[in-house]
């Protein structure tokens, strides 16, 4: 065994830790949030697994924790001996009461009552910005109806129900049988832990004991919600890249504290429950290669532009660049770095207000992916061949994920400056403005001294602190170009799938 990881399970909720190189005292330092209901069994199952160079996994040890026996509102430091092997697992477990999800009828709508709405708004007002930092806000979703759904049954009808997902919270409506225009009229309430989460609403067809059939899906970023107005959302396919058949009507209300939301932006995102890993796709791999190529070309063009200034290919351009260089270097101060980035934000904002930016359709054309997936994994009697195929697939899948990360990182930096999410861009401007003022008035040695003291004493002040990078946590909230397409709201006039149009024309 060369690598180790931990799996945690509470009921249907499962998490998997990051994988570390095997050692006698591995330190994961990760945080996972579970939903625990006091009226249910609360046994947390923990398994330590090892993995060899051939990706074969073996369980090394297990332990259990009875959540119900732990006291509330305090960090319980537990040293759990592992069964079937030597060693122990050190964990910090904290039970915190919090607002849970709820489902009700339209007649019992929490935010419809003025007194209750005022009480909730008071809970998230600016005066309470430093209380219960994980409770950022509340989201209320009214699932009204769907129209013109796909007929999934032989009778020409469907048995639709609706599934709502926000982070790790999942709720669903009841099923309406034999209907292509169902009316659910249900109200769902979600606590918000991160204002940058995305609400996913999926419509399925109930199919008895078989897995439900997919009827359409929409993804709605919380910051794009228009409060208190019914909205018609065109359903998309599973990849959220093309229009599907039908539409769904939702009405949403969002109340949150902007200070808590801003502070939460610079902390690690909540990890998602363990799900099936994404299959290898030739189309997605090709798309990720193109995305990385575009970022590389943009950097190459910038380098060539700088070279052309040195080579005096254009006399006017090189002369202006030379004068700017002399003036900038002669008058350079450290505070000018965040100031220059701040001016870039302002410049892009002015261009945005003048309507000179490209439309979302340009990004959709460049990131369009067909519904067809790359399908291997055919049965074979030769086990050696199968292992080689899995090994190659694992390597290519790793390359695909690395390309995805590189492309997304570059696109997120670009989209931060492009004001794709105004909340995040405004927050970045605020940080840069504060940095400019601080560097102007405070000597650099004092700033470095404060930073160094904080870094050196962090583990002394909190031995179990989880390391994080605030800049990467911020960028993780900015959507990539692919996510921009997935989150884009389709207009009702474009409800026909481009893929179907293409096929019908042929």
Explain what you see.
Residues 1-80, 114-235 form the C2 domain. Residues 365-378 have a biased composition (Acidic residues). It is found in: Membrane. It is a multi-pass membrane protein. The strands form four sheets. Strands 1, 2, 3, 4 and 5 form a five-stranded antiparallel beta sheet that branches. Strands 8-12-9-16-15 form a five-stranded antiparallel beta sheet, with helices on one face. The protein has a four-stranded antiparallel beta sheet with strand order 11-10-13-14, with no helix packed on it. With 506 residues, the chain is α+β, with helices and mostly antiparallel strands. 19% of the residues are buried. Helices cover 36% and strands 24% of the residues. The longest helix has 35 residues, at 383-417. A hairpin with a 2-residue loop joins strand 10 (160-166) and strand 11. Mean pLDDT is 83; it is low at 357-382 and 494-506.
SSE ordering:
EEEEEEEEHEEEEEEEEHHHHHHHHHHH
Distance between the termini: 55 Å
Shape: globular
Strand count, sense and barrel status of the largest sheet are: 5 strands, antiparallel
Average residue pLDDT: 83
Helical content, roughly? Answer: 25-40%
**Structural class by sheet pairing and helices:** alpha+beta
Count of helix runs: 12
Q: How large a portion of the residues is in β-strands, by DSSP E?
A: 15-25%
Q: Can you tell me the residue ranges where pLDDT is under 50 for at least 5 consecutive residues? A: 357-382, 494-506
* CA-based gyration radius: 26 Å
Number of strands: 16
